[in-house]
Every structure is written in C-alpha cells, then in structure tokens.
Write a structure and sequence with these properties.
Elements (H helix, E strand, L loop, with lengths): L7 H12 L3 H8 L3 H8 L7 H13 L2 H11 L2
Helix pairs in contact: 2-3, 4-5
Length: about 80
C-alpha cells in the first residue's frame, strides 16, 4: 500500500462522500466508530493496515467510480 499519512484525510473524505455516507455510517461499514472516522478525516490518526485493505477493496468493488482513487492512492 502506498497511501501516505498526509493523503489519508482526503482519501477518506472523498470515498465517504462518493458513498453518500455520514461519518457514523461510514464507520459502521468499516467496523469503526464515528470518532475514528472523524480522526482519520482530520489527520489525527490513520487507519490500520486492515482498514486500509478494506478501503482498497471497497474502491475495487466500486468499479469506475473508485478507479481514480485506486490509481492515485494505491497505485492500481
């Protein structure tokens, strides 16, 4: 995985917006609480390796809608 710490807030916020989810719903989807998503988006913490793998899998499942984010953040 090639996502840098400084890129994580933009990746998380962009993906969440594309999915049309609140921070709370996004957290439920990825098995974390609202505060964790909020911390990711504000750069206070970063997702675990497992969470990043789940995020990558979500982008892959989105097809064309996730393709640009996969290329930009995961070099796919």
């Amino acid at each position: 995985m090639s996502v840098t710490t400084s890129e994580i807030p933009v990746l998380i916020r962009t993906l969440r917006n594309r999915l049309g989810l609140s921070q709370e719903k996004f957290g439920q989807k990825f098995g974390v609480v609202f505060q964790t998503v909020n911390n990711w988006e504000n750069g206070r913490t970063k997702p675990t390796r497992m969470a990043l793998m789940l995020i990558q899998r979500q982008l892959e499942q989105m097809g064309e809608d996730g393709e640009d984010l996969l290329e930009k953040y995961f070099n796919k």
